[in-house]
Backbone:
């Protein structure tokens, strides 16, 4: 059979094309597609030992307060309940890896405290005082070890609140302010705020003493407090040195101070303002002296019958 030249050329072309196609046999190692790198899990948060100790101490105080509420022998039930609520507010932050973050966090486990054993008022009162002192000391240690001014003030505030419970005088109140992040003031500005509040207190004490009868028991208290306030002023002035701000000639009084009642209320407001002044000093300077003065400031506030908020020193 005769095959035309066209067919032969066409067939040859097919063979040529077929010869140029890739072989199904793979030579060498096959290529591997690059894998997506895995992101390592973030390290588990670690609670600072000072904060863990404070958490345990506050939990122990709160547990004893709630136990006291249920005892017939303990009469200050409203005080104990309010104080226990304060402990809960402090524990809510002590248990968080980042106490000042608004994000969702997995809290650290709160240890279960050992219950008290006393069932009469004196034994319970002694136990509460001891646990409040322990909590205040542990919170002060957490403040001293804090990594930032806002955390330092947070734990110093809680230490002040816990210290106030040792006197069992006035029930704490929730208050309007809670801890948060802030830009810390300079040391000079912070101590300037504290000395300004000290001057205002000295002025108010002087006005009140001038209007009270010398036979009024409040007069004796005010006179002793005036001498103490002047010593505090001198200490702040020495700390500030050449940076001491100018003193105002007069200060606005928080009340009319025209009776023993309004004088007492005015003094209480001025003492609370001084506590806030010491809180500002704590925010601006890590010296332990200002934290000690902040805790001590709870005493004159309570002696005048004024309550402290759960977070003293913080303002809304």
Residues:
């Amino acid at each position: 059979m005769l095959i035309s030249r066209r067919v032969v050329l066409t067939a040859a072309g097919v063979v040529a094309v077929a010869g140029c196609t890739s072989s199904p046999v793979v030579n060498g190692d096959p290529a591997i597609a690059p894998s997506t790198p895995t992101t390592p899990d973030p390290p588990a948060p670690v609670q600072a030992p000072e904060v863990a100790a404070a958490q345990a101490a506050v939990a122990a105080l709160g547990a004893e307060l709630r136990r006291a509420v249920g005892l017939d022998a303990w009469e200050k039930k409203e005080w104990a309940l309010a104080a226990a609520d304060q402990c809960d507010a402090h524990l809510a932050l002590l248990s968080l890896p980042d106490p000042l973050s608004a994000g969702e966090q997995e809290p650290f486990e709160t240890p279960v405290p050992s219950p008290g054993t006393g069932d009469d008022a004196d034994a319970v009162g002694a136990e509460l005082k001891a646990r409040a002192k322990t909590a205040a000391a542990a919170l002060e240690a957490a403040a001293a070890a804090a990594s930032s001014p806002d955390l330092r003030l947070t734990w110093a505030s809680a230490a002040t609140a816990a210290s106030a419970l040792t006197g069992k005088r006035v029930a704490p109140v929730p208050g309007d302010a809670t801890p948060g992040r802030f830009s810390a003031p300079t040391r000079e500005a912070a101590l300037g705020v504290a000395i300004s509040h000290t001057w205002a207190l000295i002025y108010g004490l002087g006005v009140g003493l001038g209007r009270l009868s010398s036979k009024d028991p409040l007069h004796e208290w005010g006179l002793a407090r005036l001498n103490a306030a002047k010593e505090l002023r001198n200490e702040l002035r020495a700390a500030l040195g050449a940076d001491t701000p100018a003193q105002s000639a007069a200060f606005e009084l928080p009340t009319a101070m025209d009776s023993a009642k309004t004088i007492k209320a005015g003094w209480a407001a001025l003492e609370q303002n001084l506590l806030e002044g010491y809180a500002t000093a704590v925010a601006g300077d890590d010296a332990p002296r200002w934290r000690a003065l902040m805790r001590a400031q709870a005493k004159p506030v309570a002696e005048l019958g004024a309550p402290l908020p759960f977070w003293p020193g913080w303002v809304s």
Notes: The two ends are 108 Å apart (CA to CA).
